[in-house]
């Protein structure tokens, strides 16, 4: 089982690695490219994570930990628009702070099968938004649409370097995608 990141630098490594894995895939991302991206030698990177496999698993696990934390925060709330809006706020804040992890999670939607625990991630989302895709297909599609919009928009906000201006616009877009128009 991958260890949890101990430092802010470990989180930077995970986010940077996640972005590279998302962009190039696991096989095409070299240990040297990972080390160069975070400003370490290969030996220095291996001091933090013992292998490329361990780094990949740690990036996925870190994203799952963050997702489970959101579930824990919204679970006490009753199902409905307020819960969904809070989940979107929390997820947007994570996405704005960790664009690499968002890229990796988004890749799981566009390149299925790369992550063996993708089904677990889908269950977390179903729990977060209280939806059964087999019964509520329209809601499930709206949720995927909202999260996809969030992923793309938060990546653009990071690219533009203006998270503060973009955040309320991202939230409004995602809320609208769910069908919860703000008054």
UniProtKB/TrEMBL annotation:
InterPro entries: Homeodomain-like_sf, HTH-type_TetR-like_transc_reg, HTH_TetR. Gene3D superfamilies: Tetracycline Repressor, domain 2. Keywords: DNA-binding, Transcription, Transcription regulation. Residues 7-67 form the HTH tetR-type domain. Residues 30-49 bind DNA. Pfam families: TetR_N. SUPFAM superfamilies: Homeodomain-like. It comes from the Bacteria. PANTHER family: HTH-TYPE TRANSCRIPTIONAL REGULATOR BETI (PTHR30055:SF234), HTH-TYPE TRANSCRIPTIONAL REGULATOR RUTR (PTHR30055). This is HTH tetR-type domain-containing protein. It comes from Lentzea roselyniae.
């Amino acid at each position: 089982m991958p260890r949890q990141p101990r430092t802010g630098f470990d989180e930077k490594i995970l986010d940077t690695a996640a972005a590279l894995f998302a962009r190039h895939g696991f096989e095409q991302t070299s240990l040297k490219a990972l080390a160069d991206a975070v400003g370490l030698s290969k030996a220095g990177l291996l001091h933090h994570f013992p292998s490329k496999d361990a780094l990949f698993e740690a990036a996925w696990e870190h994203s799952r930990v963050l997702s489970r934390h959101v579930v824990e925060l919204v679970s006490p709330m009753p199902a409905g628009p307020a819960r969904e809006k809070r989940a979107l706020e929390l997820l947007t804040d994570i996405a704005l702070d960790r664009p690499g992890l968002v890229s990796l999670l988004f890749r799981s939607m566009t390149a299925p099968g790369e992550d063996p625990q993708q089904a677990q991630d889908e269950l977390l989302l179903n729990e977060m938004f209280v939806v059964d895709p087999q019964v509520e297909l329209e809601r499930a599609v709206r949720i995927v649409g909202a999260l996809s919009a969030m992923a793309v928009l938060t990546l653009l906000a990071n690219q533009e370097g203006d998270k503060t201006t973009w955040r309320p616009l991202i939230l409004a877009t995602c809320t609208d995608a769910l069908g919860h128009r703000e008054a």
